[in-house]
Sequence to fold (808 residues):
Amino acid sequence: MATEDARYRQTSQYQLWSFSPAQLAAMRETTNAAARARIAERLSYSQPPSAAASSTNTPDPSGSTPAPGPQLPEFLTPAEEAQLVAFFTSELLRAGDHAEMSDEIKATAAVFFRRFYVTNSIMTYPPQDMLIVALFFGCKAEGSFVSISEFGRTFGKEHPEEILAGEFLLCQGLRFALDVKHPFRALRGAIMELATLPDIDPARLGAAEARAREILRFSPLITDAYFHFTPSQIMLAALSLADRALAERFITKTFHYVAPPSAADNSSGPGTPVPDSGGGGGTPAPSKKSRSGEDNKAEVIGSQVRDKVLGAIEACRDMLSRELPERREHWTNKAVIKAQIAPLRKKLKACRDPDRWNLVELQRRRREQAARNVDSEDEDGGRSGKGSLDADAAVFGEPLGAAKRRKVEGGRDGKGGGGLGDPFGPPL
Amino acid sequence: MSRKPGSTSASAGAPAISTEDMCPVCKTMRYLNKDMEFLINPECYHSMCVNCVNRLFNDGPNQCPYAGCHRTLRRKGFRSAFFGDLAVEREVDIRRRVAAVFNQVEDDFETLDDYNNYLQMVEDLTFDLVNGSDARRRQAEATLQQWEAEHRAEIERNRRAGRDADDAARRRIAAEREAARQRRVDALREAEQEKLDRARSREAELDSLASAGPDSASRVQLKRRGGQVAAQRALDAAVGAAEAASGGASGGGGAGGASGVGGASDVGRLSIRGLKEKKKPAASEGPYDPFGGLEFTPSRYRVLPGVHTHPGIEKYKSDPAHVTGGYDFDDYTARAMFEAFAGLAVFVEDEKEVGVGLSASEVTAISAGIAAVGDKMDLD
Fold:
């Protein structure tokens, strides 16, 4: 096994945040279903059947009354959610451009944002606020520490709390995996490697790099590429979109190993030193595993692996080609927004979570509850164990609210969390 | 072994703790006899006062005076209890006895597991002896005696080895203490000597100054310096001697330790599983690896520091802001190259679905193969 791959497998990006398309779709389904059920419950809870009586005893935290009339609004489907997340990702990238942030910060923030909305529904937490939070937190994760008041002024936020309120929430949603591996530096490495070849024109390399970087700034961030592919694969896919021949050259140069004829199963004759160049279906695997070193080499840089890598890059290339940088305008096009995004946002406004939509209010209530928990622990020593347990659970996303509500949700939480199999409990 | 005092005394046959103030046999109170002393016999651990023991057993063996206890006791077997709780006293006696028989040490075993199994076996046996039911106790007793009879020689050898090791340790400690004392005495004597020397040289100086004229002061200075050099040389010699002595002492200590180990290791073959024939040299584990065996040599590329470069970093190579701080451009190159190749053959879809190193198609092929084999086996 190649040492580079082994090292990549140690990263949190691989261990926590890489999924097959089927897994990702299943997770989004689960998140969507959980959010639907919870929001439906909350809406009916905060809005008693007697609609005439104004809900004075249960003050609505968001300040806006949910649409009266039919009890439950129409919820977003997972596909609609994904489209909205893509739209807000493009908004995030635009906001990053506005604040003149570096590519890494914007990319990290975008990946944070998308990861957050894998286990959290866009109906639960407000995406407009979360994208600012993701940008701020992305700055910190990339080691560029801006002051919160200055940052807030850039985005017209008067109070730092509006940004800080969502910060821990975001961290929870990211399962505290804050290191995002990007393909930008990998692109530099690939260009360096290609520059060592004698027959490559530097101008061509420069053009290819510029174009590939342009693609990397946008396409992988707005698609699911970061979930399905490794940075080097994304990088090569972008390079292949920019200059296909260069990317293929890079891969053939890397996976150049051809099994020597003695190790290969050559029944045709020992005197023919014509190794299969691997252009077709790949070399037959050596039948006799006599030389483990040779086998290992074939495993790391053999032609079979090359074909598989080419397949992965082709898949990634397909994904990226759906969202080339030229599509930036698509996401800001007024007509498109009016036709596609505006109806979704309207729908979102109707079905959003009344308890969680206002992050500042949410945080204030969580703090109050935590303080209350501490008080009750002081008063009642016998139940302190349970209290601290609840506090611990709250760190990892136990829903807040009355104990009764928690009990009602308990069974469902078990199912949802089991499906995702993540160590930090059910989706928020 | 934690157990509540007296909880199993009924089954073990030992009495509950008797009050310290009254002999249970003759009912004499401590109030009447201040020097009253209680004795027990390890046959049954029933306590009684010295007077009773003398009265009952001076004329030879007799039955225990406790109601229901039919043991025959002898005067010779009586002693005073060390522990107030006689159940503990009994357990300690039994443990001492078992430990004398089962006296293998860890070095006698091949692996730690074997040693632990052995300890577990011994502990089970001890537990049976201490508070097992009658049948179990008898069985454990039989096992113990059988073992003792069969392995008398080994037990004796181990015991001697243990004693030798103890003796060696004691001797070594004593020798070290003696050496330390000797060093202290030497140091004191040296300090005394130095003081004397200084006084003498000062006197000599004064004498020479008094006898010679004022022009010879510089000569005196020179001479004095020469004396200092000589003293320094003597000091060096002394330090060298001390080092040699300490080296010898430690070498002696090492030899002593080695002989102790050798004594313990030449044990004959026993039937306990995992006992090793001879001591194997411990395999060295090497230095601690903070990366848990992760390899850092690239397998798909080679970094050529001079060759791999990028127009984007060229201008910084002469930029004082970067160069002065010690920024290493080769590090940057290595990192960029690593990232370009890392995870190139990590296929997320396959690996997250079925595991590292297999593709989904291969898995289906394998499972098909297994199914085929299974069918064949069914046919057979």
In short: Confidence is low (pLDDT under 50) at residues 1-18, 247-270, 374-380 of chain B. Chain B is about 60% helix and 0% strand.
